[in-house]
Sequence to fold (231 residues):
Amino acid sequence: MVISGRLWFKSQMSSKAESHLSNRCKIMRRLIKTHGPCDLVAEKRSPYEALVNAVAHQQLNGKAAQSILRRFKALFPGTRFPKPAHIMTASDKKLRSAGFSFGKIRAIRDIAEKTQSGLVPTRAKAIKLSDDELIARLIEVHGVGRWTVEMLLIFTLGRKDVFPCDDFGVRNGFRVAMKLDDMPKPSVLREHSKRWAPHRTLAAWYLWRAADAEKSDVKAKGKGQEAKGKS
Fold:
């Protein structure tokens, strides 16, 4: 069951999901013990807004993407987030002034057009559709692939059994957790993740934490060595 607003992880189901993963997989048991309860929270926004945000973030770091989105919103005062009609009637020059490339302008125009046509559903309608139905519909939008839809399923709709096996962070977290020398192929993760169903989103969250922890360790070691060199 999908719980709108906050992700199901924040509900009473969280402890049951963690118990399921711990019982099925010793790696998950270790990650849960290391990183504690999941605190992931879904943003209560429409699929349209989520997709525009996702396109803005493509191939950019978070800070640069947020700057573009701030300028984009500022182009249309009086609204919390620009409506599809705003995008459809705005000139390329106006959208370019926010920092969007021509490729991204084409993508957000298609998102806006397909929102108006109903292909990109409202949040209320999206909640009633299955993961596979949403993926099949939304990958028809220019610039939107399976990974982008999976991020929407996790971070906007709070779906509990989504496993983005093509995600770099998930793959890297699996490498770290399993102590592998090489980055695993998505097909390997897809097969391995079957044991985590029906709580694969939670498993992905713990793999992201494993990847983040390694980054922090590497950064801390680098600073330690730098300080040691100066002493």
Remarks:
- Residues 47-155 form a domain with the Endonuclease III; domain 1 fold (CATH 1.10.340.30).
- The chain has a mean pLDDT of 89.
- The chain has two domains: 8-38+163-224, 47-155.
